[in-house]
Structure formats: structure tokens, C-alpha cells
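Fill in residues.
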């Protein structure tokens, strides 16, 4: 299973040369191009753990269920899996030992719900869905999100597993507590789906960067950054260094590029290039990695990342596949 610490570790190896100032000047690396069959229904999600998540989402889609239900139920699988160390139960804690969770969900009609800095609730995506369905708000955070979850009948649990606790204690031995996200990790699960009716939805859920500062929130619960849906166009979701995605409104940019005629693959590629241009020369560029996946309302999909190491799972009528994203940098 791809671990999020592997996602950024690539950049710490050094010696990475940028071949050209233009992505268009480079030959694409890896696999994972835009689908040509325009399949409906379709579900696509980030990382290896997307395979199991997609399988659950597909159970909803193949029986005629709605995309919004599929993306909610799908990401609940890694949220409950303690071996997925970057999502939900068993996720790596912040530098103070607290597991804090972010999640968001968005429908084709812009209905949206999100939670951030939520503690003690195994399935933040369910809480985000209820924020969307039962409140006039888009996001609840911290103690307010936790209070809302309790009012809705959610049980509070200790989400810090023994494995994650041991890793945290080991990290503390060497930590210098710099207020940056370092190379140890970064990951999430983002999921996009289109149902038989052609309606698109997205979800995103994460425990965020391991050893982060207490209170840090990444891109995952932020509409336009970690995910974005426009029913007239399609949807996108992001993974990687959340701060970089937030600074560029990454997922919203991908969807807008598709609105202007780009394929999902080309839109993901262009958004990645914009992040490169904005962050080149900044301190975090040494460990910067981002990846995007996108679908349009015709059932086409694509993915792209800045550096090697990002993959995404696809499930359609032809079955399930795991694809390595085309990337820009050679190691």
C-alpha cells in the first residue's frame, strides 16, 4: 500500500532537475490518461486504498444509486481501516498526539457539507453529509463540529491506534517542531463519481499531515481546493501538500479549465503546472507534491501529478484498475 510518507519522500532524495519551464515541453511519464469510452456510471479515487473504496461505491452506482451516496459510502471504507494511516481511524496524529479529521462532500447542484478539525468521530464524511442535509451551513469546525456530531447520534471514540501512537512517539525523538509540513507524509482519499443519470458528486476525507501543528487544516474540507463539483461540467479532487492546493484553488481551477474545453487530463496537468510556477523558489518546494484527478459529465476521467508516486483507482463497467498518474518530474 502506498504510504503518504512515501508520497513526499521522493523530493528529499535531491538531484531533481526541472527539464523545462513548460510542462508542454516534457514527454509525459507513467500511465493514466483520459478515458475514451465516456463510461457511466464511473467512480475514481486517489491512491491504492481507492480500490476498496471504489468497490463499495460501485455497489451503489451499478444498482442505479445516486453519485452523492456512492462517494459518501465509498470513502467510509478507508475511514474505518486502521491500516490506512492517513484517513480516519488509525490516522497519524498531530505533533501533540491528537487525531484530527477533515472531510467534505459536494453534489452536482453545489449542495455542500464539510467538517474540519474534528476529533473523536470515526466517520467525518457522514458528519459532513449531515451538515449538507440538515443545516444552512457549509462547514462546521472543531468543538462545534464535534457537538453537532454528538447531537446527531455519533459515538465518540479514541482514534489513535497503538501503531500510530508508537510512530508518533518515535517521531518525537527527532522532531524539531518547525511550523511546516515536512517530508514524513501527506495523503488523503478523494473520490469522484458519475451515476447512470449523469449526475456528478465528490467527497474527500483525511487525517491530514502527520505531526502537523495542532489546529492545522489542509485543503480536503475546503470547497474549491480539496474538491469541487459543477454539475454542468464535472468534478475534481486533489491530494498532496494542502497548503499548495489552497493557494491555487486547485480543484476549482481544474473544473473551470474543463468548462473552457480542456479534457480532464489536460485540466489536471495545467493546474499542476500553475502550482509549480507559484511555488518554485519557496521553502516548501523541496518537498512539494500534488496530484489531481478529474471527471467530466461525459464520463471521461484523467489524473496528473507533479512528481512520481501518485496513483489512482478507477471502477467502471469494465471492472477495477489502479493507474499510475502521469507526472512531470524525473527522480
Amino acid at each position: 500500500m502506498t504510504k503518504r510518507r512515501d508520497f513526499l519522500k521522493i523530493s528529499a532524495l535531491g538531484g531533481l532537475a526541472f527539464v523545462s519551464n513548460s510542462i508542454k515541453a516534457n514527454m509525459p511519464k507513467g500511465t493514466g490518461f483520459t478515458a475514451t469510452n465516456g463510461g457511466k456510471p464511473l467512480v475514481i479515487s486517489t491512491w491504492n486504498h481507492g480500490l476498496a473504496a471504489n468497490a463499495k461505491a460501485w455497489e451503489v452506482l451499478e444498482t442505479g444509486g445516486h453519485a452523492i451516496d456512492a462517494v459518501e459510502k465509498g470513502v467510509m471504507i478507508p475511514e474505518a481501516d486502521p491500516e490506512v494511516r492517513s484517513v480516519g481511524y488509525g490516522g497519524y496524529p498531530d505533533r501533540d498526539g491528537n487525531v484530527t479529521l477533515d472531510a467534505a462532500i459536494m453534489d452536482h447542484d453545489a449542495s455542500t457539507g464539510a467538517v474540519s478539525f474534528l476529533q473523536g468521530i470515526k466517520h467525518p464524511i457522514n458528519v459532513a453529509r449531515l451538515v449538507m442535509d440538515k443545516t444552512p451551513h457549509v462547514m462546521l469546525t472543531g468543538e462545534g463540529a464535534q457537538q453537532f456530531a454528538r447531537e446527531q447520534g455519533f459515538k465518540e471514540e479514541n482514534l489513535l491506534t497503538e501503531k500510530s501512537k508508537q510512530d508518533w512517539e518515535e517521531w518525537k525523538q527527532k522532531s524539531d517542531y518547525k511550523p511546516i509540513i515536512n517530508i514524513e507524509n501527506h495523503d488523503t482519499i478523494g473520490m469522484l463519481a458519475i451515476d447512470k443519470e449523469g449526475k456528478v458528486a465528490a467527497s474527500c476525507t483525511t487525517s491530514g499531515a502527520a505531526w502537523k501543528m495542532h489546529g492545522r487544516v489542509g485543503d480536503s474540507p475546503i470547497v474549491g481546493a480539496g474538491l469541487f463539483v459543477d454539475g454542468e461540467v464535472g468534478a475534481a479532487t486533489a491530494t498532496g501538500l494542502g497548503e499548495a492546493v489552497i493557494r491555487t484553488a486547485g480543484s476549482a481551477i481544474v473544473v473551470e479549465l474543463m468548462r473552457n474545453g480542456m479534457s480532464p487530463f489536460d485540466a489536471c496537468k495545467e493546474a499542476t503546472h500553475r502550482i509549480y510556477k507559484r511555488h518554485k523558489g519557496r521553502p516548501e518546494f523541496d518537498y512539494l507534491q500534488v496530484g489531481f484527478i478529474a471527471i467530466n459529465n461525459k464520463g471521461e476521467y484523467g489524473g496528473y501529478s507533479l512528481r512520481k508516486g501518485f496513483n489512482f483507482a478507477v471502477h467502471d463497467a469494465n471492472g477495477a484498475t489502479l493507474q499510475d498518474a502521469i507526472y512531470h518530474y524525473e527522480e
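Residues 1-32, 177-185 have pLDDT under 50 and may be disordered.
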